[in-house]
Amino acid sequence: xxNNNIKRYYAPASTGNMSVxxxxxxxxxxxxxxxxxxxxxxxQGEAATLxxxxxxxxxxxxxxxTSDNLxxxxxxxxxxxxGRTLPRLTLHLQKNLPVGSGLGSSAxxxxxxxxxxxxxxxxxxxxxxLLQLMAIAEGxxxxxxxxxxxxxxxxxxxxxxxxxxxxxxxxLPWFADWQVVLCYPGTVLSTKAAREVLxxxxxxxxxxxxxxxxxxxxxxLYSQEQAEAAAALQDLVxxxxxxxxxxxxLPLRTALAAAGVLHLGISGAGPTLFALCNSAAxxxxxxxxxxxxxxxxxxxxxxxxxxxxxxxxALEN
Length: 317
Ligand SMILES: Nc1ncnc2c1ncn2[C@@H]1O[C@H](COP(=O)(O)OP(=O)(O)OP(=O)(O)O)[C@@H](O)[C@H]1O
Ligand SMILES: N[C@@H](CCO)C(=O)O
Description:
The chain is α+β, with helices and mostly antiparallel strands. The chain has helices at 70-82, 105-120, 127-142, 150-155, 191-196, 204-223, 226-231, 239-242, 249-258, 280-293, and strands at 7-16, 25-31, 38-47, 51-55, 88-94, 158-161, 169-172, 179-184, 263-266, 273-277, 301-307, 313-315. The longest helix is centred in the last third of the chain and has 20 residues, at 204-223.
């Protein structure tokens, strides 16, 4: 390993829940134009102390100092899990995802950091071990451990969490012509706050309905029945409780359904919305519509994406 070479790492944006799989389903996305939608972390070398500099479009949304930054916290968590003192690093983060957005911004920084440290220090952790460390770090931000952002950001694709399995998650099939428009309005909604409004309990009937819609979606993916899969995209858990936080959702859903959009849902904990489309023309029109009717300020971001089949990775310099 040559410490004087800058090493660059990337992890993609992700959408938790995908409406039908609260805390159990998540997908990584990438813009159609091949650009990167996610954080980039550089390991610039080794030094006497651990330092982090930050640039990027959303740097202003982060805490002022760097000691609270998730990348620094990830370094110490990685070191602690390893059980030995590591050389200190000079780090640089390009913060390309908005914070508190529902695009998996915290997960993205956590994933790129753990991935980078594991690569730089010669892979001491297995994929499953690293994923667990990522999820614990993400739990520290949102108040509960959930994998639906870290798993797709790390591994790519559409990931279903497998409760109780040592495999942790499984990559699901997708539809080749599905595109997703992500629209972040520019306002911040913390995951922690959006979890505080959730119901503490579900009735038996509600629990069965939730398991049923998720099963319907997953089986339709495997049988490649597109209309059936799209029809199953109903959020029976989080959306009813979060609607007051995102009152635009229902009118936008009605308008976009009339324009041929398969589904409009909350990306993760919001406020980003995701619109599922099965034609490039509809996706393009939807992006314009959401930019006009949902974007609220200069921080807003609207982008037409496809599923990112690759997750975190090293970038060529
Ligand atoms: N590098 C970082 N990237 C993102 N958030 C960070 C980072 N470092 C510290 N934070 C803090 O972590 C918190 C992230 O909040 P939150 O989990 O709500 O955002 P999010 O990941 O964008 O949301 P979601 O999980 O719904 O996509 C904020 O308080 C933010 O200041
Ligand atoms: N499943 C999580 C995702 C947060 O991004 C939630 O909805 O709270």
